[in-house]
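Researcher: Sequence recovery benchmark, item below. Answer with residues only.
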């Protein structure tokens, strides 16, 4: 019923209407393991539901950055529109749980030691590792505000683009038929 920035409007409407149950699942927008800065949508939902309305609740996916992180890797490399991405063509395998699948790893978010060390470690075995030395030098030289402003639109590695979810959903039934999911769900519930 809602998505992204419209989710909170739907929740507010349903809270007032009191005729439906609402359960919202929100992206955390965490940029690295251990990040605790919720994205704007999740914050708005959390604030909106602080009064614990009887008909609304929510869950923040805090073990991934966004729903796109749940796309099976197989959907990425089998998709003609995505297979030319450097992650696929160079067989880069790393924990993609906090990888921004749409935009990639933004340099502006690497200012903190935790974020910097997380991504440096995740991408250490790749050609991208050499990008971290100059970034580290700039982190030490600049204030957080200056660093973020300077690297606002730059990435260490590109994401797959804004259409990744739609592209992957088209292919998912061909890769994993519904019967597979039903059987798997039943096995997991036993």
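Model:
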């Amino acid at each position: 019923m809602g998505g992204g920035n419209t989710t909170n409007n739907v929740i507010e409407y349903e809270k007032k209407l009191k005729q439906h149950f609402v359960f919202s699942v929100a992206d955390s927008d965490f940029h690295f393991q251990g990040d605790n800065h919720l994205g704007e949508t999740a914050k708005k939902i959390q604030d909106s539901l602080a009064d614990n309305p009887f008909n609304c609740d929510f869950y923040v996916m805090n073990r991934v950055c966004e729903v796109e992180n749940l796309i099976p890797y197989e959907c990425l490399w089998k998709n003609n529109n995505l297979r030319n991405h450097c992650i696929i063509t160079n067989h880069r395998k790393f924990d993609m749980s906090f990888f921004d699948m749409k935009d990639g790893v933004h340099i502006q978010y690497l200012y903190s030691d935790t974020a910097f060390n997380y991504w440096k470690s995740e991408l250490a075995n790749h050609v991208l590792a050499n990008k971290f030395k100059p970034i580290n030098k700039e982190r030490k030289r600049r204030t957080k505000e200056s660093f973020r402003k300077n690297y606002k639109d730059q990435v260490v590695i590109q994401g797959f683009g804004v259409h990744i979810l739609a592209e992957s959903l088209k292919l998912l039934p061909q890769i994993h038929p519904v019967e597979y999911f039903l059987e798997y769900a039943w096995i997991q519930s036993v």
